[in-house]
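It would be a great kindness if you could assist me with a short task in structural biology. The full record is reproduced below for your convenience:
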Amino acid sequence: MHGKVSANQIDTTNQTQTDAQTTATANNTNANGTSNDNNTATLTNGGTSAVISTANSQNEASSAVTENTVSATTTSVTAAATATPHSNQQTNYNQNDQGNYAYLDSVKLSDNGQLQVAGWNATNLSEGKPYHYIIAYDNTTKSEITRTQVTNPVSRPDVQKVHNVYGAYQSGFNVNLKFSASALANADSISFISRYSASASGNSKYTDFWFAPITFDKENHAYLDSVTVNNNQLQVSGWNATNLAANKPYHTISVYDRTTKQVVASQTVKAVSRPDVAKAYPEVDNAAQSGFSASFSLNNLNLNHQLQIISRYSADMNSETTDTVDYYFTPITNGNYTNQGYLDNFNISNGKQLTVSGWHADDISKLESNHYLILFDNTANKQVISVKANTTSRPDVAKAYPSINTAAQSGFKASFNLSDLNLTPGHSYSLVSRYSTSTNGNGGDGQYTDKWFSLSALNKRANYLDKVEMTNSGLHVAGWMASDFAINRHNAYIIVLANGKEIGRQKVNLYNRADVANAKSNIYNSLKSGFDTTIKFDPAQVTGNIQVLMRFSGAEDGNSDYDDQYSTTYATNAGSFDQINVSDNGIYVSGWHASNQSANKPYQYLIFVDAESGKELYRQRVLDINRSRPDVASAEPAIINSGKSGYQLGFNIPTSLDHHTVRVIHRITNDVNGNGDYVDVESQPVSIHADKWAWPFPAVGEGYFAGAQLFGVNPGGEFRLNGFHDGLDFGSYDHPGAHVQAIHSGKIVSVGYTAGLDWYVLEDTGDYLIVYQEAFASRGDIHVTPGQQINVGDVIGTRDTSHVHIGITKNHNFNYDLANSFNNNGTWLNPLEIIRNGLNG
């Protein structure tokens, strides 16, 4: 209740009241006067404060308090009312004081719906009016609600001391006004009137004081204390207190499904004592009995819908009329769950337990409060095992998902004994985190919400060879091996293959590797995965590539029911030519060559063979051998003595090599001359003096030419225009060979076709333009492309005609050159002389 009261409202009678004036007062509402005091007074009511505000005028409202309204609304006054005149105990009082003084000390609402009103009213105008009433007036309907006579005036010497007027000493009052439930529910603004009347009924010859209007609490207060699920029941409790329900005795609690837009459960509840609510809301009728508790079967509810609790007060027990007061609580389920989760760890590394940890955050867990972790076999489509789990603190999740209230307590961790699971290698598994309303089994017979985490298929394998070293006794290997398929295969073998065939094996007892368990925690028994052993065989008897096979077998001999993993392949013979440097007069070769077959082979040779024909052109023994090569030892650990495999050799270029494209062979042999029992490695083609001129068929060299093949005007070439030949023809008979090789290094600038030339290739050396023509029947016979840089001796294409025509010009405009093909004007140069001079230069 809120409002103000005035301590000094003055009657309009400005002089000592006479009988005529008293009569006039009773019939003239203006006799109430206006307030001179706009102060605010705070009323303390049961520990709470109500602020009562001053009204400046009550002239209109007072006119409604008539004898007629009294007969309709008064329940406490009868015609037989007895006056209890207040006596003026002071011997002298100021008869000239025309003020009407009053103050409302407090207004309280009691548990039985009565208003306790206390205050005082003193005025000389009360003389001769022995009947004192306190009246409650509804300012909205402009009608009296109730009244009561002050039969036991309260002594107020404090008032007499301040206002020495008639009756001031006995001007106090403390009365109870019986309010109807309808008045409490419907009245918006109430004024209290202090009336002194000469009439026993209080309806004539009176003087009124109108206190400022008071506003009752019209809010609808409520709180949902608890929402839980137990024994397949949704249990809710809380309170709902409001004066709007004062005339509505029936209280119903309902569950409203906002998703389907219908009430799905409802029950009438009995009032539950709530003294705490009464203390917080002393101005609300029946707040002390505003509590409720209700239970609803989950069979009619879907917790994944948006559900809302409604508290309803109604005038009839069916709560179906429009005369209701409803309070809609915030939905208890939101119907749009985020259902977030993450599997932090899945670990089967120790071979004894499967452990899982992670988090699952979903506010539905407030109602589906039983948490289960279920291991599910996706392949077999069946549950393997389930356990009831406790949630753990996860402040990191709460920070990431602040909108999920339960995120801070969303963690989980569980362990399963692998001996109880009977896991099947190759099957796919999932972990299911389930929040359920049920406490039975895996919670599947209640309402539940699942989060599925994929554990991937149980088919993972991994291995690593930390060390591979060929020794005189065999291959020493150390590393680790782990496999999901080892679940029922406990015999571990290391097997060495040469070109795919087994040459040795060793059964091993695996030892703990904590580093592997940490890195491969999702592979079965990865903790016990280490090995270090030597597989015995004669390295010299092994050729080709070798490979390490790591096996888990269900058989003691390792020959059946097994799961294999293979290492990378390792060469038994390998080498590299680090440098092949050709200078004007010499050549330098360095590199390495390592072989398991090098035992009893002390000699090393470099052999140069023609890249085209394979014919040996030159060989020389290498004396600077067994050089340290730690890089090779690291790269080729399966080759014995690979760390001492380096060599180097330099020598003057012999004539037999000059202008040849060769392949270099490094040979390790048991023969001092480089033959006998040997093992080789071979280089890529190498052009010797690639920046000089060479013959297109090096195996033939210059060879011989008929007159019509030569450049210029020669016998036999008369059939040409002007008898002039612009190039040099290398016939397939006099210069045999399929591959046309570049006669100089340069850049391919064009590959084309034109009548008379057929397919042709243009090479630009920088100084010269060289054309290779009439040798290629199709584009597929040409092995170079425009823009390609080539070296002398590189293959231009495959000759499949009777000859190749080679022309050389210093003019780089081929269209001009082609137009002067039969003019001996210096455009075209003699290839025979250019190649000869280049070779001799």
About this structure: The mean pLDDT is 87.
